[in-house]
Every structure is written in structure tokens, then in C-alpha cells.
Specification:
The chain is of the alpha/beta class. The chain is built from eight helices and nine strands. It has helices spanning 35-46, 123-136, 167-173, 186-196, 218-232, 241-256, 260-270, 283-296, and strands at residues 21-27, 50-54, 69-73, 77-81, 86-90, 111-117, 141-150, 160-163, 201-209. The strands form two sheets. Strands 2-5-6-1-7-9-8 form a seven-stranded mixed beta sheet, with helices on both faces. A two-stranded antiparallel sheet has the order 3-4. It is globular. The N and C termini lie far apart (44 Å). It holds the Pfam family PAC2. This is PAC2 family protein.
């Protein structure tokens, strides 16, 4: 993939954006391996996004759980950075046409990026506030990104499941529909809020191997960006993610090769009879795997 031409120079933002697409990801339960929020961060950096708005965190976060950070400015002054949800915007030069035959004709839409933290309180009010911002900017569609721990091997292409506003869009994107039923996070709640308000909403979920849950997970981030590129019909900035993903896979393989049981487990996942079906890893399966690993370790290894 190649990066899109640079956005228009910074300056006063126009009052009205051009059919913006909103792309949202939230830290926490919805973001295994930091894959989803890292995708939004990559877009923000690659497209030189400008601040648009942020949500007042006071009503939504427990600051004993999500504490504010203090930072030094110029080595002298301290500044507080509160946990919250921030929106940035990217406006592109007129005249850029879609690279996909399925994309609408004319100038491509602007992009609003949402980098959030799953709130501790008042989820409905939180989503209503985000929706109000989307409606103020006349957002044409929303893309929600997520990542989940699953029984998948790190050596295979990242499985991306998701939803689309209609069956035709899902078929065009080749989306594998998740069969998951159960608790959901703020990503699912916000997507449903948009649908109920009449805003078309897509969701893309990358599968992260549960035995390498610690982020970052560049391979899953790259898979999500590939889906965004396909949907928008425009190149997206991926920076060095392809190289990072290759290095990550090699490193995990080297570590796994040192443990015979883990190697056999990965081979079993690779030979699964249903590779196209995403199977979220349960808490019990993760705990059992970890306990089995601890039992294999000698006391002197701790």
C-alpha cells in the first residue's frame, strides 16, 4: 500500500466538512493488543490530523481507574492530561477520486478520527454525546474498530470479522460475520447507537492470538487498516507497519519454538478444520493455558 497525498495545509478549519467518515476505536476491553487504537493513531499521524473536539471526562470516567497523567513541559512546567475521548479531523485536497469501483463518484470524503477510552459510567449518555458531534459534522458513515483475543495462530493472516449496513456491502467487503453472542463493549454500543440514529455503521474486528495478547500487535493493526483502505477506496498511511508485522511474527515464532507444548498448540490451531470461523478465546481457556504453562516451569526458572 502507498500513502495518500498529504492533506491540505493546516489552518482555520472550514465550518463544514465534506461528507465525513468517522473512524472510532476505544482503549480497553475492545482493544486486544492495542490493535484498534493503534490503527487510529497511525491514521492520525500519517494524515496529520488536526484537533476537532474532546469529550469532558468528568461524567464518564473513574479517575482512580483511569488516572490523569502529569507531564513536564520544557522541563519546568507540569501539565495534566486527563483520560478522555478526543476527535481529530483530516481534510483532503479536492479532486482525489476513489480507487475502488464500489466507491461513490466525486471527491472523497473527509475523515474524523475518534481515539477514546471505554468509559466507566453512563455509556448511553457517552454515546449520545458522540452521536451529537457526528450529527453536527454531518457524518455520512461510521467505522468502528475493535480487536479481540481468539483461538487463532499468529502465523496465519489475521482474521477480520465485522458487520456492514446491508448484505450487499458485507459481500463486497468479503466480511466474515462473527457468530459471537454475549457481553459487548463501548465499540458495539456506539455502533448500535449510530444505526438506531440512521447513520450507516461498519465494524471491523481483528483476531489477536490469546497466547500473545500483550500489545502492540502490528499485524492486527495492519489488517484493520487494509479493511479501511478497501472500504474508503483510498490508500491509507501504514508507515513501517508491514516491516514491524514481519518482525513481530518472527519474534513470536522464535519464542514459541523454545516450548514444545506451545509449538504443538500453534500447529493444532494452524490445522483447525474451520479456519474461517472466528472463535473468541474464553477466560477459562486462557486461564487453563496459563496454568499449564506455569506447571511446566521448574522452580529455578522463576
Amino acid at each position: 500500500m502507498t500513502d495518500l497525498d498529504a492533506p491540505e495545509p493546516s489552518g482555520a478549519l472550514p465550518a463544514k466538512l465534506r461528507r465525513p467518515v468517522m473512524i472510532a476505536a476505544f482503549e480497553g476491553w475492545n482493544d486486544a493488543g492495542d490493535a484498534a487504537t493503534n490503527a487510529v493513531e497511525q491514521l492520525s499521524l500519517g494524515w496529520d490530523a488536526e484537533p476537532l473536539a474532546e469529550i469532558d471526562p468528568e461524567a464518564y470516567y473513574d479517575f482512580q481507574v483511569s488516572r490523569p497523567n502529569t507531564k513536564l513541559v520544557d522541563g519546568v512546567t507540569r501539565m495534566l492530561e486527563w483520560p478522555t475521548t478526543r476527535l481529530t479531523v483530516v481534510r483532503f485536497p479536492r479532486g482525489h477520486q476513489a480507487k475502488s469501483a464500489d466507491a461513490p463518484a466525486g471527491d472523497l470524503p473527509d475523515v474524523i478520527l475518534v481515539h477514546g477510552i471505554e468509559p466507566n459510567f453512563r455509556w448511553k449518555a457517552f454515546c449520545a454525546e458522540l452521536l451529537e458531534l457526528a450529527e453536527q459534522q454531518q457524518v455520512a458513515s461510521v467505522i468502528c474498530l475493535g480487536a479481540l483475543l481468539a483461538d487463532v495462530p499468529h502465523t496465519r493472516p489475521v482474521q477480520v470479522t465485522g458487520t456492514a449496513p446491508d448484505p450487499q456491502s458485507a459481500e463486497q467487503l468479503g466480511l466474515t460475520t462473527s457468530r459471537y453472542e454475549g457481553p459487548t463493549g463501548i465499540t458495539g454500543v456506539f455502533a448500535d447507537t449510530c444505526v438506531q440514529a440512521g447513520i450507516p455503521a461498519y465494524s471491523f474486528w481483528a483476531a489477536v492470538p490469546h497466547y500473545v495478547a500483550q500489545g502492540p500487535h502490528p499485524k492486527a493493526t495492519l489488517a484493520l487498516l487494509d479493511r479501511i483502505e478497501e472500504l474508503l477506496g483510498r490508500p491509507v498511511p501504514t508507515g513501517s507497519l508491514a516491516e514491524q508485522a514481519a518482525e513481530w511474527e518472527t519474534e513470536v515464532s522464535d519464542i514459541a519454538a523454545q516450548d514444545e507444548d506451545i509449538t504443538e498448540y500453534i500447529h493444532a490451531l494452524e490445522e483447525s478444520s474451520e479456519p474461517e470461523v472466528l472463535r473468541p478465546a474464553s477466560g477459562d481457556s486462557i486461564a487453563a493455558e496459563f496454568e499449564r504453562y506455569l506447571r511446566r516451569r521448574e522452580p529455578g526458572d522463576h
